[in-house]
Design a protein that fits this description.
two-stranded antiparallel ribbon; two-stranded antiparallel sheet; 96 residues; 2 helices; 4 strands
Length: 96
C-alpha cells in the first residue's frame, strides 16, 4: 500500500496530494560552502588556511586533489609510459 502525502496551500486553503515519486524541485538560491580547516602543508610544513590558500598551495607545488577512488599509493604513470601506451594504440589503428 502506497503512502499518500498532502501539503496545505494557504491561498486556496485546501490540501493537495503530493506525488512522492516526482523528482525534487531545484532550489533557487545561493549555495554556501564552508571554508577549509587550517592544516600544515605536507611539503613545506607551512600552515594553509582556507580555500584560496589551498588552491594556491596546490598550484605552487604542482599538486592536485586526489580523485574519488584514487589513493596516494596508486602507481604514477611517467611520461615514457604514457608515450609507449599512445604508440601501442596508434600501431593498433594503422595497418602495416
Amino acid at each position: 500500500m502506497a503512502r499518500t502525502r498532502y501539503r496545505y496551500d494557504s491561498e486556496t486553503r485546501k490540501f493537495f496530494e503530493i506525488d512522492c515519486n516526482a523528482p525534487p524541485v531545484p532550489r533557487a538560491g545561493p549555495y554556501i560552502v564552508s571554508d577549509y580547516q587550517a592544516y600544515d602543508c605536507p611539503i613545506t610544513g607551512r600552515p594553509v588556511d582556507g580555500r584560496r590558500e589551498h588552491r594556491e598551495n596546490l598550484k605552487q607545488h604542482g599538486c592536485r586533489v586526489l580523485e574519488p577512488g584514487e589513493s596516494r599509493e596508486a602507481p604514477k604513470r611517467s611520461e615514457e609510459q604514457f608515450n609507449a601506451a599512445v604508440d601501442r594504440a596508434v600501431d593498433k589503428m594503422l595497418p602495416v
